[in-house]
Structure formats: structure tokens, C-alpha cells
Amino acid sequence: MNYPKAPENIDPQMTEPSPLYKAEVVKCISVVIFFILTYLALIAAATLIALFCFKTGLFIFSAASGTLVWLAGGGVILIGALILFFVLKFVFSSYKTDRSNLIEIHESEQPQLFDFIRKITLETQAPFPKKIYLSNEVNASVFYDSSFWSMFLPVRKNLLIGLGLVNSVTLSEFKAILAHEFGHFSQKSMKVGSYIYNANRIIHNLLFDNGGFFRTLQNIASVHIVLTICMYGVVAVVRGIQQILFAIYRLMNRQNMKLSREMEFHADSVAASVAGSNPLIQSLYRLELAEVSFSSALSTCNLLLEEQKQEKNIYPGHHFVMKYLGKENQLPIVHQLPQIDRNTFADFDTSRINVQDQWASHPSTRDREEALLKWNVKAEEVYESAWTVFTNQEALQEMMTAKLYEGASIPPEPRVSGSFVETKFSEQQDHFQLPVWTKNYWDAKKFPAMNWNEFSPEAADANLYTPAQIQLNKKLKGLESDIATLESIIRKDIQVSGFDFDGVKYMTKKAPEILEKLEAEKSLLEAECQALDLKLMKNHWQKAHEKQIEPGFQQAYDETLGVQKKQTQFQLIHQEMLDIFGPVFRGEVSELSEVQNIIRKLGDQELKAVAIAREILNWNEEALALKSHQTPRLTKFINQARIYLQGNAFNQEDINGLFDGLNHVSDALDEWCFIQKRKTLELIEP
Asked: Please, what is the Cα angle at 560 between 557 and 566, to 5 degrees?
């Protein structure tokens, strides 16, 4: 094994926690102490209420007799008992960490990897992991089994290595990434994370895990009107407790995010001290592409399943997709990997608003790069693949790929291969590609409505789809993004004291003023883009006239507009259904009548969605090149069972089928629209 050498003469201050880091630790501990005191106060108050209710109930029993008296006395006692139970119910909850998607490995199986990791722990002065797990992810992380007692007892941490990450980095980059994780191993502040984790678990239980509790209240309330009144009292007190805890929940998590960002900067410094700055910077940028590529490979595997094909080893396909996308974006391929830096996608970043996301647990890649460049540690790099430290690589890849299919609906007698992904992905890319000469201008844009009667034959312009014209679309998207950000600041969805605009700092109160300015710019730019769209299409009509095919061009174009109209219609239906079901997704529904009302509204919109799905199935083979691929999905959606409510609970399987079906209809419409666009543009191919 060619182990990358650590740099020499490292400044000891480099791996010391910064003053800001230490300050955030103190703030986090203060918030945890505040939570503990508040929670103890709530328990004390609930206990006093329970005692008061118990004594009051006994007094009612002794004052008179009869059914109503017994109901009233018992109801009052229940009020106190249920409030106390609510505050303490997290004690009776159990939490299990799902590791079904992980594989634990041992030194006897992977001796080189364990030796590699041991050397990094020695260089970073971090303890060796308790256990090492593998996953399919494009990621590496530290985790530990946290329980109530872990706040007081020492806990050894586990290391998780994603093979998607291994598939995407060199050996030096792999060392830098693992060294970053061992930087976390050495952070005593992770103990604070254990406190916050357990505090969050308590609050989350009281805020969100209440389905059984509220159903119990509903059942009790249904017995008699007296008990109904008593249960309203319980709900009122519980809602008050939740409001207090929600405020602490937001404060605690916001402070934890700030500490997490400082922990990331510190772990980066540890990594650079043993592996150099450049390997970590390069891997941080590439991993964003690697994640997109792995997601594309997974989507391709899903398509293959529908063709009764099962991928034996996803990792060669993942690597193929990563290189394919790299070449498509004109990235240099060095050591079999795309090379990315901060300037690679600069043209796509047209945002002028910069807001520090207080809810982000990680700094931006650019901020991390700037911090690493301040140290600018040089190290000799090893460019071999990170796979070189693994034993039986192919068998391991196949084992992890099999994990991906656990729980999936495997077709009978699927054909198994190690290269399906590459072939299918290439087919998909070729199929979903507009003519190269349009330079992706129409990929995410709709054709404008045209009045062909206004046109008269002229010479077609050859100077189309220039860089300046292409940039207009990107500029408009950037404006729309900035306007959405400012609107979130004004609504206080994003809670910040200020923001940067065009490199100048502004207080939050200036957001409406900047918003007005950007909306005016957007109106002008939209008009410019619309004029350009019309100019381009008029020019294409002129080209069709020169080729004497304008009737066919006009027909294909109008058919495209028809599909676009159908797309817009379905998008409104889909969004309406998501909005209707939103309260369920957010856990805001507890009454059976509310549930029934949601199901009724959902059914009205679903009929419209099914009608569109039937219409799609009536396409002819020429209009839908991949009809065999879409037909089973749409047929299943049209014919599926629609039992969304069983008793007073949702039928999750049918609900999942509903929203999966809606996504399939949306995909089919997108495909139909794309095919129509391509058919139209290919008619006037230069």
C-alpha cells in the first residue's frame, strides 16, 4: 500500500480549536442547561397539577354521589394524570437505530483498510473506531449509539464509510476525508452533541410523536360530554407546554448548527495537517458531482428493474456516469476522475444575494476552501484509486449493490449484469437530448405561443444561440432565486439580522427595498427573454420556409404547445393534491373528521389526474418512443386500489402508491413534451 505521507513542520496552532469554536461550545452548553431547568420546571408544574387534580377529584367524590359526579371526579383526576404522563412519556418510548443498509467489517476481512485507518488515527491522535461500517452512500461520517446514559458515560464512536465515496476519490483524498472524520473523533465538544441529541429526542417526542396520545384523548372524550370537556382541558395545557418546548427546540438547534459549522472547520484543519489542503478541497468539490452521479445510477437501476434487469455491480456504472457528466460539462479528466474547482460552475451561479444559513450544519464548500487555503498546507499526493486499500473489491461492490435491492420488488427471473447501468444511462442521455445547436436553451423552457399569420418570408439569421443569449436565461433564474430568498427573509422564514447584496451588507429591514428593485429588473428581463424567444422561433419558421416544410413545422410546433398546456394543467392538479395532504405530512391532523375531509378533497383532484393518465396512454407509438416503459406505471396508477383510510388511520401503502403514481404521470408528461420539442427542432436542423 502506497500510504500518502503527512506534511512536515505543521504549526501546532493549526489543530487547536479557535476562540469562536470555544465560544459556540459555551453557548451550546448554556442552551442545554436552560432546557434542563425548563424541563424540570415543567415536570414540577405537571406534578403539582396532577396532585391538585387528584385532591379535587377526591373532593368531588366525597361531596355527592351519582354517575355524573363519578364522571366529573374521574375526569378531573384524568386531567392531572394525562398531563403528567404527557411530560414524562418519552421515558416509555424506545428508539432503535436502523442499520439494515449497513455492513459491519472486521480487520480479518479488510486488513489493508484497517491498517490505513490505524495510521490516520495515529497521525490525528484520535482513538480507533469502536466499529467500522460500510454503506452505499457518497459520504463518510462519525456516529455513536446515543442513549440517556451516554450524556454521562464515555461513548466510543463508530466510523461509516460510503463506497460511493470510495468510488469517487484518490488515495490522498480518501486519507483527507477520513482524517476529517477523525478530527471529529478527537473533539470533546461531541459530548455536547450527545446532550443536544437527547434533549432533542425528548422535545421531538413531546412535539411530534403524539398520534397515540391524542387518539387516547379522543377515545376518552367519546364516552361522555363531561369527559369531552375534561379532555379539552388536557389539550389546552398540552398545547401550552408544546409552545414553550418549540421555542427551546428552535433555539437549541440553531445554536447546535453554529457549533457544528465550527466543528467542521476544525476537523478540516486536522485533515489538512496530515493530508494537505489540496486533497480535501478537490474532494469536497468532486463529491457534489459524485452524489448527483450516484443518484442518476440509482434511477437507472430503477428503470432497469421495470425491464426485468438487475444490476450486479453499480459502482462501475457510477464511475461511468461521473466521467460522462464530467465530459459533458467540459471538465478535465485526470487520474480517471473529473477535476472541479470553484470556477467550474461559476457561470451557473448568478445569485447576487448571500445569506448565511443558520440552519446549515456544514459551511459552504467555498467557505471551507478559503479556510483551508489560509493554512495552505502542501503534501505529496498519491493519485491511485481509494479502492487500492480494499480487499476483494469486486465481491464487496457486489455485496453492497445487493443491499440496494433489499426490499425492492424484484421481477421474476431478472437478468443480472455488471454493465446494464452504462448502456441504459447512455440510451437515456441520447434520448433526452435536444439538438446540440440549440445549446440547451430550450431544455427547461417552454415554447412561446405564436401567431403564424403575422409572419412573412425573410432571410433566416445564422447568428443564433450566442453566449449572451444563453446567459439571459441563467440571469433570469438567478433573479428569481434572489427574489425568493428576499421574500423568505421578509416573511421571517429565514431569520437573519442582515444579508449581502452585490457585495454590500444590508440590514434585514432593507429587504423590501431591494426586493422592489429586483422585481423591476425581473420584469424588464422577462420582457427581453420573451422577445428573444419569439425572435428565435420566428427565425426557425423562416428556416422551415426556406426548406419548404413550414406546414409540418407549424403542426409539430402547435402539438408541442398542446402538450405544454396539458403539463401546466397537471402541475396545478399535482400541487393542489400536495397542498391538501400537507397537514398530514406535517403531523397537524388529529381529528377523524379532518382526515375524512382531506380524503374527500383528494379524491376530487385524483379523478382529474387519472383522466390525464388515461389520455397519455392514448399516445401513438411515434409520439411516445418509450411507451413500453411508461405504460406499466400509468396502468398501475389508473387501476390501483384507493383505500386511503382504514378505520381512523391512513393506509400508508395506498397513499404512497398515489403520490408515486402522480410522479409517474408527471414524468410521462415531461417525456412527451421533450419528444415533441425535439421533433419540432429537428425539422429545421442546420
From this structure: 150
d(Cα 270, Cα 14) in Å, to the nearest integer? 7
Q: What is the dihedral of CA 62, 64, 69, 70, to 10 degrees?
A: 50
Q: Which residue has the higher pLDDT, 137 or 212?
A: 137
pLDDT at 93: 61
Q: Strand pairing partners for 390?
A: none
Which residues, in sequence order, are bridge partners of residue 138? none
Q: Is 478 helix (H, G, I), strand (E, B) or coil?
A: helix
pLDDT tens figures, 142-173? 887 655 555 555 567 899 999 999 999 999 99
544 burial (CB, 10 Å; 0-12 / 13-18 / 19+) is buried
Three cell numbers, residue 662:
402522480
Tell how strand 415-417 and strand 309-311 pair up: parallel
| pLDDT one-digit tens code per residue, 382-418 | 999 999 999 999 999 999 999 999 978 787 778 888 8
At 453-512, the pLDDT tens digits run 888 877 767 788 999 999 998 899 999 999 999 999 999 888 788 899 998 999 999 999
Torsion sign (Cα): 634, 636, 640, 644: negative
Neighbours of 206 (CB within 10 A): 24
User: What is the per-residue DSSP string for 302-353?
Assistant: HHHHHTTEEES-HHHHHHHHHHHHHHHTT--EETTEE---TTTTGGG----E
pTM of the model: 0.83
- Candidates 270, 265, 275, 273; CA nearest to 169 is 275
Ranked by mean pLDDT, the top range of 27-31, 130-134, 639-643 is 130-134
Three-state DSSP string of 347-377: HHCCCCEECCCCCCCCCCHHHHHHHHHHHCC
Q: Which residues of 27-54 are buried (b: 16+ CB within 10 A; e: fewer)?
A: ebbebbeebeeebeebeeebeebbeebb
380: Cβ contacts below 8 Å, ≥ 6 apart: 4, 5
